[in-house]
Amino acid sequence: MDFWDRVKTTIDKSFDTSKEWFDKAKGTAHELGERGVIRVEIMQLESRAEKLTARLGARVYDLLVKEGRSRIERGSEGIGETIGEIEEIEQRIAEKERAMEAIKKREQPNDPGPDA
Known about the structure:
Layout: H1 3-32, H2 34-66, H3 80-107
Helix pairs in contact: 1-2, 2-3
């Protein structure tokens, strides 16, 4: 097994371990309320994005070093798909963060302001 195969295997194993931990934390988060659940979901998405970013870097390395390419584009094999997944995750995280803000606003007591 060469270096990058070991790196990929390590990344996959660490993701599986993280997923198990997050699944357990998600069960506990239900006890903490909506905000806790959303926080755990955001952490899961961030973890997935980190794994995809590592995979992207490994693929770029393979293309540049092992395959000897001098140029890589979004359309290069394995690049665009991974970038697309990362972008989708970023959108989902933004949605979760907006939901978190909405919950915070909903939970805040009404502030009557200085004129009240």
